[in-house]
Design brief:
Elements lengths: L1 E2 L5 H11 L7 E8 L2 E8 L2 H8 L8 E7 L14 E2 L5 E6 L5 H10 L12 H13 L3 H11 L4 E7 L6 E6 L4 E4 L3 E5 L11 E4 L4 E6 L2 E6 L12 E2 L15 H7 L1 H9 L3 H12 L3 E6 L1 H18 L3 E5 H8 L7 E7 L5 H12 L3 E6 L5 H4 L3 E4 L12 H21 L4 H36 L4 E6 L3 H16 L2 E6 L16 E6 L5 H13 L3 E7 L3 H6 L2 E5 L8 H19 L18
Parallel strand pairs: 15-16, 15-17, 17-18, 18-19, 20-21, 20-22, 22-23, 23-24
Antiparallel strand pairs: 1-10, 2-3, 2-4, 5-6, 6-7, 7-8, 8-12, 9-10, 9-11, 11-14, 12-13
The structure holds 5-amino-5-deoxy-1-O-phosphono-D-mannitol (M6R).
5-amino-5-deoxy-1-O-phosphono-D-mannitol binds next to helix 9.
Length: about 600
């Protein structure tokens, strides 16, 4: 950030880093310029610990950059923390992403007499910039461009130089970077909540662009054309700063679980014409693929069942990191690929979609972040309306992804003649009722779920089973439990459990069944009986009137009313999110910041 008055930036930088803490990190650092001199402080650890140890906030100056690092190259050490500097200490760089050719560059730079002091890939950048400044006597912007041209991989960078005491250079390729325009300052960050409390005016920097930030001006250029300023209007961010805070709840995750009814309601308000256009595009295309990672993949898997059941559209859901290896050679211009990503930034999904686009496919994205990288390469976008999701564990963004698939499936089903107008109306009626059902689950089941979480909190293993569309719900339930409570949880299609996983079952082994009263129920009961026969404790997510399943269950998480089969994941996942949350609390873990995980995974 850079101010046009004598505001001291260091405390503001620290505050902004705190607002991005949810993204996961292991070290922290700041650089500022005051009276033509650069100051850097950094260390490993959490922001408050580092502040306590070395006081980041006393750095002087009205211009500065800051960073939290999540280690990829080089261990968690002070030297590997950002900002990185060059041999002359005149220049500081922070970087998100990975420089994949850093070893080659490092060797080349060392041969020129430069000394590397960290193991971090980023350190090649300050040295390269310094070399360009010295050798070619260019200005800072040109020196940065030359350096970035040498780099392979992904980056969002911010650069400060003593000789340019009122200038921050930022640039990006495949890593997010947004610019905020305030009344007396300019900001740049990897995510909007970093500056949303300071301004709601944002400029989106596109891939392979560079911007020169000065207190009252932002100049944007293409890396390939550094002489032509690209005019760009700021957009107004509708989220309020409070929306990105905890709203009185102990954790973002719980707040976000409670926000699900509203998130669903808002997503149901998406312009139907947009959905119809997308449905028409899918209808006119031969090959339909869905790709995503993690929780978003589970939404995509449910989406695949919705398409099959409701629209008779042959399609496949693929995990993004497997997409190219699996179907790369069959993607063509008669293909459509739906990319699902709450952040719109997951590197695996971005890579799969870029590949598909290059092969001629049409791209549709379902994301929760306006202007994110994935939306910018899409032909059509469904912007889900969950509002900002801060907890690392995806909850409300998952249910709205499901809603997007339901809305799209219904329109596509109508276009294909697989459902008629009265079936469509009936489904729409049930869809509109989902927020109330979710609300009831949250309110009525909390105590029951807390008790169950206490009872099972010492277990080391869980099995989650479901059939049909709810294999996706079971997978998501297991992912939630393992990522925040660190209890090992596996999920299987229930019918597959007898082909191996059943060997794990011994007395009191907890098995969770996602058990709506649909066409799969009789077969699911067989699986419950198989587990019971071996002494398993049966936990079921079950409809209020379904006494058959309830009689077979030791613990019941109750769904208060009937839900059409294709909508069941939206309701049936909610108790499992809550079970994971209360299990993490009981075991003494912070569900908002699970170890080893980041909210946005921008590495391969
Ligand atoms: O932002 P994305 O939806 O693309 O993220 C994909 C996964 O990293 C993400 O869903 C992850 O699995 C969740 N945070 C788990 O709760």
């Amino acid at each position: 950030m850079v101010f046009n008055d004598n505001t001291q930036v260091a405390p503001l930088l620290k505050d902004s880093l705190k607002r991005l803490e949810y993204r996961g990190y292991d070290s922290v650092g700041l650089a500022t310029i005051s009276e033509g001199k650069i100051y850097i402080k950094k260390d490993k650890g959490k922001i408050d610990e580092v502040e306590e140890r070395i006081t980041l906030t006393d750095l002087p100056g009205n211009i500065g950059i800051a960073h939290t690092r999540w280690a990829t190259h080089g261990g968690v050490t002070k030297l590997n923390a950002h900002p990185h500097h060059c041999c002359t200490n005149k220049l500081a760089v922070v970087h998100n992403g990975i420089i994949s050719n850093f070893l080659d560059l490092q060797e080349e730079i060392e041969e020129m007499g430069h000394k590397f002091i960290s193991e971090c890939d980023t350190e090649v950048l300050p040295h390269l910039i310094e070399i360009n400044l010295r050798k070619r006597k260019t200005k800072l912007k040109e020196a940065v461009i030359r350096a970035l041209k040498r780099v392979h991989g992904e980056y969002a960078v911010a650069i400060l130089h003593e000789d340019y005491p009122q200038q921050i250079i930022v640039a990006r390729k495949d890593s997010p970077l947004v610019i905020g325009i305030g009344s007396n300052a300019v900001f740049a960050a990897s995510d909007i909540p970093a500056f949303l409390h300071l301004t709601n005016q944002a400029l989106i920097l596109e891939d392979e662009e560079i911007a020169v930030l000065t207190p009252n001006r932002v100049e944007i250029y293409k890396l390939s054309d550094p002489n032509t300023i690209i005019p760009r209007e700021p957009i107004t961010i509708q989220w309020t700063s409070e929306m990105a805070q905890k709203g009185g709840m102990p954790h973002f995750m719980l707040k976000e679980i409670h926000e699900q009814p509203r998130a669903i309601r808002n997503t149901l308000l998406i312009d139907p014409e947009n959905i119809i256009d997308i449905a028409k595009m899918i209808n006119n295309t031969k090959n339909v693929f869905i790709t995503a990672a993690g929780t978003s993949f589970h939404a995509g898997l449910a989406g695949s069942y919705i398409f099959n059941n409701l629209t008779k559209t042959n399609n496949r859901a693929l995990i993004s990191s497997e997409f190219i290896d699996n179907v790369g050679n069959i993607i063509d211009d008669d293909s459509v690929v739906l990319g699902v990503s709450q952040s719109g930034e997951s590197m695996d999904t971005l890579t799969a979609l870029k590949f598909a686009k290059k092969a001629g496919a049409k791209i549709i994205s379902i994301t929760n972040v306006v202007g994110s990288s994935i939306t910018r390469l899409s032909d059509h976008i469904i912007n889900t309306q969950a509002g900002p999701e801060i907890g690392v564990a995806a909850t409300k963004t998952f249910v709205v992804q499901l809603i997007a698939f339901c809305m799209l499936g219904m329109q596509l089903g109508k276009i294909k003649g697989a459902i008629d107008q009265s079936e469509f109306r009936d489904l729409k009626h049930h869809l509109d009722f989902l927020p109330d059902i979710v609300q009831k689950i949250i309110i009525n089941q909390e105590e029951n779920i807390k008790i169950a979480a206490d009872q099972f909190s010492k277990k080391d293993n869980f099995l989650y089973l479901g059939r049909g569309i709810n294999t996706a719900t079971a997978s998501e339930g297991a992912l939630k439990l393992k990522e925040i409570s660190y209890i090992h949880a596996e999920s299987y299609p229930a019918g597959e459990s007898k082909h191996g996983p059943i060997a794990l079952i011994e007395p009191d082994f907890p098995v969770v069944f996602v058990a709506p009263p649909d066409d799969t129920q009789e077969r699911l009961i067989t699986n419950i009986m198989e587990m019971k026969a071996r002494g398993a404790k049966i936990i079921s997510v079950v409809e209020i009137d379904d006494l058959k399943i309830q009689k077979l269950s030791d613990i019941k998480f109750i769904i208060p009313s009937k839900v059409p089969n294709i909508f069941t994941p939206v309701a049936y996942i909610v108790p499992l999110q809550m079970f994971a949350y209360f299990s993490a609390i009981k075991r003494g873990f912070d569900p908002d910041k699970p170890r080893n995980l980041a909210k946005t995974v921008t590495v391969h």
